[in-house]
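Title: Prediction job returns without error message
Component: structure pipeline
Severity: low
Priority: P3
Assignee: unassigned

Description:
Job completed but the reporter wants confirmation the result is attached to the right record. Sequence as submitted:
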Amino acid sequence: MDKQQINGLEEQEPPGHEKMVTAGIIVIGDEILKGHIQDTNSHYLCKELWKIGIMVSKISVVGDSLESISKEVRLFSKQFDYVLTSGGIGPTHDDVTMEGIGKAFNEEMICHPDMMKLFFGDKTPSPDNAWIKMTIVPNSTTVHIAPNAKDLYICPLLIVKNVYPFPGIPTGLRDTFQAVKHLFTTKTNCVFYLKQIFFTIDEDELAHPLRRLQEEYTGKIDVGSYPNDSNNKDYIVKVTLEGRNKSLLEEAYCRLLVYVSPDTIISVINSYDNEIDKDIRQSISWLSQYIGNRDSIIPIELCRKIKLSIDIMNETLDRYSHDRVCVAFNGGKDCTVLLYLFHSLLEWRKVNRIDTSEEIDRKIKGLYVSADHPFQQVEDFISVCTQRYNIDLIKIRGSIRSALEKLKLSNPKLKAVLMGTRFSDPYSESLESFSLTDSTWPQYMRVHCILNWSYCHIWLFLRIFKIPYCILYDKGYTSLGNSTNTVPNPALCDTSTDTPLNTLTNGYTEKRNGYLPHYLPAFMLQDESLERAGRIKKL
C-alpha cells in the first residue's frame, strides 16, 4: 500500500469558514416572569437550531406588554439573522405578540386573506368571533402554512421580515418548528459538532489544562466544563469541545490528551460519529480490553491508523508464516508501538485460532542492530522488553546492511522485517508499506506498518494504552541515536525549573550557571518538525 493509498483512507475535510448564522429568542408571557409556568420552549429551540448550524446568541423574556415586545423585537431583528418568539399568539386579550411585532417595524395591522381562509374557509365570521384576532397581522407578513397544518398542534407560521413567531404551548411550538424547520437552513450550510469528555478528576485539576486549550483554539472551538451534580457519579466533570470543523475538534482533543492523563477519562461521546467511524472503532475493539474497554477515548484518526497497521501486519502473516517474520527493535518509541501492536495481534490470533498450533507458542523474532556507544537506559529497556514480549532477540552490531547480511547467514528462513519507520523519518517520504530491499542488498521484504503515524499519534498510543517506554523520553529526549550524537531536545527545555547540578544523567549534561536544565517529557513537544532537534549533526 503506497502513501497515496494510505492518505486516501484519512478523512478529508475542508477548513470551512462559513459566516456564523445567529438567532435570538424572545420568550413572551407574564406567566413566565412570575414563575407560574416554567419555560421549556427556549431550551428546545436552542437545541434544534444548534443541530442545523444556527447559534443562539441571546434569550430574552418579556411580559405581555406591547412596548416591551416591540422594543425587544426591534433590537433583536437588527442584531441577529433570525428572531424566534414564543408565546402571546392567540385570541385572548393578552395575546399581543403580532401587534408588538407590527409596532416594532411601524407596520399597519391588516386582516390577512390567507389566515381568514385557513380559519373560516368560505364562510364569513360574525364580528364578535374571537378567532378573527388570529387573522390580523402586520402588513408585510408572509403566511407559511405547512402541508399538514390541519394537525391539531401545527400552527401557521407568520413571518415578518426576519421574525418568526411560534405558539407558547410547548407541543404546538415543537410540532410547528419541525414542520417548518427547512425554512431555517437556507442561510447556512454549516453544522456544529460536539465532543463530550467525561473525567474522573475534579474541576480544579482541569482548570489550567482547559484554560491553556481555550487560549490555543480561541475563535476556533469553544471549551466548556460542567461538574456532575446528579446522583449518577460515574464521572465527576464533563468537558465539552464544540466547533464547526471536526478536524479541529479532534486536533484539540489530542492536545488535551497531552495536558491531562488519558487515565482520567472514562468515556467520550461525539455528536458526529458516522457508520464508517463506528465500524473502524469496532474493528479494533479487541484492543480496548487493555484499557478497560474504554475504546471511545481513542481519537478516531488514531483508530484509523491502528486499523491500517493491523491490516498490514495481518497481510504480512498471511504472506509469510510466523517463523519467517521478525521485528526490528532498537528500544525507540516507534518500534515500541510496532512491537506492542504485533505482540497484541499475535495474542488475538492465538485466541481466535487463526494461526496453526505450531506457530501459537513460538517466540517473536526480534532484530536489534546495535550502534556504537549505546545509551545504557536503552540497553536496559530492550532487555526488559525481551522478557515482556517474549522475544527471541538477535543482536547484531554494525551498519544495517552488514547486520542484514549476517542475519541472512544466521537465520536463512527469515523473509520479512517489520520496521517502525514513519514518513517523517529522513529519506522515507516515498516508502510503501511493502518495500523490497535494494537489489544490491540482502533480499528482505521491509514491512512498514506505521508509515502514516505522526509523532503525536505515537505518543497518544503509548499513553492511552499505558505502554512502558524508554525512560530517556521522560527526560527530554525525542529521537534516540547513541550517547554521542543525541541530547535532550532544546525545544523541551524548561528554564523555569532548573535544578542544582550534582550528577551527570543520561550521558549528557549542560552547565548553565551551575545548574542542570530541566526538560519536559517527549510527549509534550508541540512542533513535530523539531522531533530530531536533539540529534547532533556531524561536522
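Comment from assignee: result matches the submitted record. The two ends are 37 Å apart (CA to CA).
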